Amino acid sequence: MKFVDYPDTELMMFDLADMLASELAAALRQNDAACLCVPGGTTPGPIFDVLSGVKLDWDRVTVLLSDERWVPESHERSNARLVRQRLLTGRAAAATFLPLYADTPEPEAAVEALAEAITPHLPIDVLLLGMGADMHTASLFPGADRLAEALDDDAPVVVPMRAPGAGEPRVTLSAPVLAGAMSAHVVITGAEKREALERSEDLPPEEAPIRAVLANATVHWAP
Ligand SMILES: O=C(O)[C@H](O)[C@@H](O)[C@H](O)[C@H](O)COP(=O)(O)O
């Protein structure tokens, strides 16, 4: 794992957006298409704001979510809603978005079809993830009902997930899909998350799921 700390959040968001854009551009120089995978939550909005205005062949980029809350896009907790409002605007509006949600009451009915749509776009070229103070990333929560399945080397691409700290049911890309990204960045802010990251170093992924993606990742931190 590589760790980069920044003097302030604004600078981090700009630098990181710039880095993601360069990596996407490099992937597009090598291949016809590139896959960008992003998280939801409260942290990445400012990165999306910068990235959405970057000059890039966005029409060759597919955007995926690392995970989704099982709510329709009209819901304020929908990660797809965040991505549509903050990332898929401006120049990035030309990208293709693959949602991680379908209009079924429970995620179990939809995960296979979602995985089928995503699989042709793997491996992820550029991955951005967040992390919770409980050391979850994507929707790989400690104590979640299907965490062991999602951490397994042979895990399916998309796994439904229910956890005490998660609110509504979720779906998540599995650990091998996330860990298989060509380039991975984790963005965190504040002392609590930095301490959690340090604590995770002595824990197995079952207790600290962020461990499952850290080996080849760069963690970006600002106070
Ligand atoms: O849908 C989600 O909630 C995410 O994808 C999740 O994994 C998020 O990245 C962390 O919970 C951090 O969330 P914050 O950025 O809001 O702290």
Question: Can you put this structure into words, describing what you see?
Answer:
- The protein is an alpha/beta fold and 223 residues long.
- The protein has one domain: Rossmann fold (3-Layer(aba) Sandwich).
- It contains 8 helices and 10 strands.
- The protein has a 7-stranded parallel beta sheet, with helices on both faces. Strands 4-8-7 form a 3-stranded antiparallel beta sheet.
- A hairpin with an 8-residue loop joins strand 7 and strand 8 (170-173).
- The protein is globular and about 40 Å long.
- The mean pLDDT is 98.
- 6-phosphogluconic acid binds at residues 39-43, 66-67, 79, 130-132, 136-138.
- This is 6-phosphogluconolactonase.
- It is an enzyme of class 3 (hydrolase).
- Its EC number is 3.1.1.31.
- One of its GO terms (molecular function) is 6-phosphogluconolactonase activity.
- Hydrolysis of 6-phosphogluconolactone to 6-phosphogluconate.
Number of strands: 10
Helical proportion? 25-40%
* β-sheet strand percentage: 15-25%
How many structural domains? 1
**CATH class (first level) name:** Alpha Beta
Shape by Cα distribution: globular
In short:
By secondary structure, the chain is an alpha/beta fold. It contains eight helices and ten strands. It starts with a strand and ends with a strand.
